[in-house]
Recover the amino acids of this structure.
């Protein structure tokens, strides 16, 4: 039985990892990773050093392939295209401690893999990957395709019209109408981008709940895997876009303070409680951004400019890379 004090210490340590990531923006030396492309170095990476199998999951448009390429130094200066199938990618991941022999599995987003076949294959049996990086975005998932973006905009405008119609029918003098009137008025005051982000955060919550329920809990509580080390990093990406509201974003995803739990925080707590804090001792919820980039789906939704520059996002990536190395068993010197 884990005591309340031990639970408090556990989440305090997790929150300290977030604080360390924020602090990296001003304190860590920026460095761009490189990928070993020569045959000799490729063979050395394959046969020397620790091996890590890492699964990257998250909603479609979260930037999973983008983050992988950033971590390994292979990022083009444009958005990476949509992934419609599982990617198996091998690279030597360089941290400040050493080079890690790594195999990354980048799992397609929900719409691209509706049956979860990739996750079923990865987490079935007794050899489930020990390390998982799950990406969430603070509501800034990218929507692929001009037509799809237009449909998203039309959906938001339709919701706006429905709220306006309901407002016109409400009578502030009628019992029960006043509260609903205040709620709808407040919602109507928010811009379309705010509503888009709320919708996308609800989608990513469902994705995370499914990941925990159908894959992480079953795989990490099997008796045959009890002695294998495991770790989980929830990477809150697109930090350059939400950095000015980082306290609110942190408290949405990360348990441990006095505020009431959000649904995401509750799901994360439940995962730790079921798997066990001692078993899942290596858990982090941290901000990261592959590189600064404006967010603009459609003109009506509007554009949101990044609050961080490239040097700052490079520092975040470097810190994230070292955290992965630490969790893989190569502590930073």
């Amino acid at each position: 039985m884990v005591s309340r004090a031990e639970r408090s210490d556990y989440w305090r340590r997790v929150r300290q990892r977030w604080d360390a990531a924020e602090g990296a923006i001003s304190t860590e030396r920026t460095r761009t990773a490189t990928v070993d492309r020569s045959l000799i170095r490729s063979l050395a990476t394959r046969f020397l050093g620790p091996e890590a199998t890492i699964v990257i999951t998250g909603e479609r448009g979260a930037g999973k392939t983008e983050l992988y390429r950033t971590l390994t130094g292979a990022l083009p200066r444009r958005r990476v295209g949509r992934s419609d199938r599982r990617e198996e990618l091998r690279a030597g991941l360089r941290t400040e401690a050493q080079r890690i022999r790594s195999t990354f599995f980048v799992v397609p987003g929900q719409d691209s893999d509706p049956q979860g076949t990739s996750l079923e294959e990865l987490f079935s049996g007794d050899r489930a990957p020990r390390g998982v990086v799950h990406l969430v975005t603070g509501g800034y998932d990218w929507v692929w395709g001009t037509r799809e973006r237009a449909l998203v905009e039309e959906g938001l405008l339709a919701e706006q019209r429905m709220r306006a119609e309901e407002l016109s029918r409400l009578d502030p003098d009628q019992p029960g109408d006043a509260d609903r009137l205040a709620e709808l008025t407040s919602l109507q005051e928010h811009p379309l981008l705010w509503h888009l982000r709320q919708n996308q955060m609800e989608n990513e919550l469902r994705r995370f709940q499914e990941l925990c329920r159908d894959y992480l809990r079953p795989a990490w509580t099997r008796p045959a895997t009890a002695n294998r080390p495991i770790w989980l990093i929830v990477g809150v990406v697109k930090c350059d876009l939400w950095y000015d509201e980082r306290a609110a974003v942190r408290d949405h995803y990360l348990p441990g303070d006095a505020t009431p739990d959000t649904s995401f925080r509750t799901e994360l707590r439940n995962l730790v409680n079921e798997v066990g804090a001692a078993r899942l001792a290596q858990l982090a919820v941290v901000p990261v951004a592959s590189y600064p980039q404006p967010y603009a789906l459609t003109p009506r939704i509007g554009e949101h400019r990044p609050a961080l520059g490239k040097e700052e996002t490079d520092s975040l990536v470097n810190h994230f890379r070292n955290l992965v190395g630490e969790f893989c068993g190569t502590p930073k010197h």
Residues 32-48 have pLDDT under 50 and may be disordered. The chain has one domain: 4-143+198-327. The first helix runs from residue 4 to 27. The radius of gyration is 21 Å.
